[in-house]
Specification:
Blueprint lengths: L1 H10 L24 E6 L5 E7 L6 E4 L10 H7 L5 E4 L16 H14 L5 E6 L2 H11 L4 E7 L11 H13 L1 H10 L8 H11 L4 H10 L5 H8 L3 E6 L6 H7 L3 E6 L6 H4 L1 H21 L1
Parallel strand pairs: 3-4, 3-5, 5-6, 6-7, 7-8
Antiparallel strand pairs: 1-2, 2-4
Helix pairs in contact: 1-12, 2-12, 3-4, 4-9, 5-6, 5-8, 6-7
């Protein structure tokens, strides 16, 4: 990781991260090693919560998936923040961020990420997105040309041209509308392999299925409308994925839209590799970050 920190310093890709009050963007003073919480208003005035950790040059910005929050990256923050700043975000309707939004689209979530990056005055970032967070960070990258070193998807973006059949999506939504808690439990538990730790499965399902149903359902209604392939084209940045093998990653199709694409596969994990095997995941994440950083250096 020393090699990564050195490379990032040579790039001079970031201004120093900062600390601030709970209700305002962090002022431009050097970040301390103790995590600092902040808030910023998104495009629609909604309050977006975030945390900055770390004390070196360079930064990773982590975005969670559907009905999750920034706490899902705890093992990554603990590991990587020893070497570089890490920013974790609660998207609108999740965690500690505001709930009163009309537009629950991927485009709106991308603007939440942009608002945090702007508030911290970051000139160059690597965006990491899990599940739904994959399309969200692509949208953020599209909105911030020249400021994104690369995007890393986590069990997401397996085939950027894939469109889920409308009837299959409607079936999921219908079940959630009839019995959100029960259908959500079934939905989330299906995201794990049979060999997964039952305690972890129960914790994740219990957490995600206490999300506000009106927000969770509205988000899922908007998600399939987003054109992921077009977003990859428009973002024009290197793309890496850390995916499980339960659903195949279409490398050929993805490289049509992101020529600098590669995938790291984790065997025997479900949809939450960063929780299921954090040590292995963190090793692959470091590798992906180093590749993206080296690519920018040599490019």
């Amino acid at each position: 990781m020393r090699r990564l920190a050195t490379a990032l310093a040579l790039l001079s890709v970031l201004t120093a991260l900062a600390c601030g009050t709970e209700e305002a963007p962090l002022p431009p003073t050097p970040v301390a090693s103790v995590p600092r919480d902040g808030r910023v208003e998104s495009f629609d005035g909604l309050s977006i919560a975030y945390t900055v950790s770390g004390s070196a040059d360079g930064a990773l910005v982590f975005v969670h998936g559907w009905s999750c929050d920034r706490g899902y990256w705890e093992a990554q923050v603990e590991d990587l923040s020893h070497d570089l700043p890490v920013v974790t975000i609660d998207l609108a309707g999740h965690g500690d961020s505001g709930m009163q939004r009309v537009d629950w689209s991927v485009e709106a979530f991308g603007r939440d990420v942009e608002a945090v990056v702007d508030a911290l005055d970051l000139t160059s970032v690597i965006l990491v997105g899990h599940s739904m967070g994959g399309p969200v960070v692509l949208e953020a990258a599209r909105r911030m040309p020249g400021r994104v070193v690369g995007v890393i998807g986590v069990d997401t973006l397996q085939d950027v041209e894939l469109r889920i059949p409308e009837e299959a999506w409607d079936e999921i939504l219908d079940g959630l509308e009839r019995d959100f808690s029960g259908a959500c439990q079934t939905f989330v538990r299906s995201m794990f392999q049979p060999s997964a730790d039952p305690e972890l499965v129960g914790e994740v399902a219990g957490d995600m299925c206490t999300a506000p149903p009106e927000v969770a359902i509205a988000v899922l209604r908007e998600l399939p409308k987003y054109d992921v392939a077009a977003a990859v084209d428009a973002a024009g940045v290197p793309l890496r994925c850390i995916n499980g093998t339960g659903f195949p990653t279409n490398v050929g199709t993805n490289r049509k839209h992101a020529p600098d694409f590669d995938v790291y596969l984790m065997e025997g994990v479900g949809h939450f590799p960063m929780l299921e095997r954090p040590d292995e995941f963190n090793r692959l994440l470091r590798q992906a970050v180093e590749e993206l950083t080296a690519s920018r250096t040599t490019g």
